[in-house]
Give the backbone structure.
Amino acid sequence: MANGTWRIARTRGGAHLPLIIVAALAVALILIGKAQSSLFDRARAHVMDWMKPALSATREPMVDFNRWVGSIGEIFAVYQENLKLKEEIGRLRQWHNTAISLDERVKRYQLLLHAVPDPVLSSVVARVIGRASHPFLQTLILDAGKENGVKPGEAVVDARGMIGRIFLTGERTSWVILLTDLNSRIPVTIEPGNAQAIMAGDNSPMPTIATFSQGTELKAGNQVVSSGDGDILPEGLPIGTIVTDGSGYRVALFADQTATQDVEILDFKLPPEHPPATSPDDLPVTAAGLPPASPPVAVSPPAAPVTAPKTKPAPAPRTQPAAPPPGNAPGNDVPDAGNE
Amino acid sequence: MERAGSFMGGKFLSSIIPVLCGVIGVLAANLPISFMGEWVPSPLYALMPVYFWCLVRPDLMSPAWAFLIGVLHDVLSGGPPGIWAASFVATYAVIDRQRDAFAGLSGLGAVLGFATAALIACATNYVIFDLYHWQLLSLAPYAKELAVTVLFYAPIAFVLGAVHRNLVGPQRSDL
């Protein structure tokens, strides 16, 4: 310990000047970071790419040690754990069968309704090589980056549910902002009832349900899934269940952030929906600025259907023929599949 | 044991060991393993070498090194840049001004001395973080981080002491 037994340096060696300089540098760094966060993020990604081998190398022995330490405690509870797992497997098998039959039913309904199929999800499996748990900051560092097709905003899930989102990518590494982080906010849907809400992290183990529609009643045990609003995250990713804490509602997450070592980064490829290009022929005559259709001839029954409302004539005559009524595009009668 | 500083190349090695310990501290604080569960923050391992060598060998742990260790901590933890760097520099400044008082402490007093330094680091970080986000945040996470950092100081200071005795040595002018 730094006590009197050490030979203490008495001379400060003109350290005051460097102190002032580095203090000024630190303040400048904070201000630059606030104003130009992307600049620092790029530097951070480069540093992480460079440090990836060191982090990966230190990870392996630590994981082994952690597993070994954990196994010592678990050995005493293995029998009880085994019984509990068997019971859980039986229950899950029932749910599995139910899920399969429901999945088939949903597919049939989709076929009947000509529903737009769910967007294709591809994924990248990555290992956790860094984990920061400091006040108001909970992040993971993964060993996959742009080289693996990882992009900011993508959802990160473990075997049980969603863990967070990618917020920064380097060439070979990427950062995850956890759902529990103070800066995390994602749109969610609460089932049953399809209630829309925003789930916000506050650095506690269970994020809060920050806002939801007036008059919505939530119950403990309700399921929370990603809503897909904003086209950032896929719809329906399992997140957790609602719990009450007296003052409000929180979400008990399915994913285990403390133990997760391998995660999946979901590439959500929802194609942007562009309306078909319009031409004057597709528009109602008034919108296209065309003269109204000529009135039907009385002597020739049956009369042609009137397609345009009677409005005042266009100010200038056009040479183009009157536009037919807008035809129904093949997909126009397809109900919205929920991809808002 | 022959001190590494007795050799020509060893002198360089002994001079970088305090900084290396700081870097290892940063890495340890951000490893993907949590022995205490995710909800207990990682101790500020990097502050321990900064405090220790700022007292006993300030020539090897200069303010610039404290700043760079803080920057590395900011980079690896994913937080806003410069906040931990500024906290470490502020702590260094206080230790530098009160070095005689801090260095005279032993036993439990030495732990309390470090607790004071850690309190300065956490308080500085809290104030800057509040200003950065322009909102008053809870003190509880900082209290947890401070507690766990002080708790871990005693065993780690023992290791740092052994490293200092065997690899770094007393002030360079005394060699």
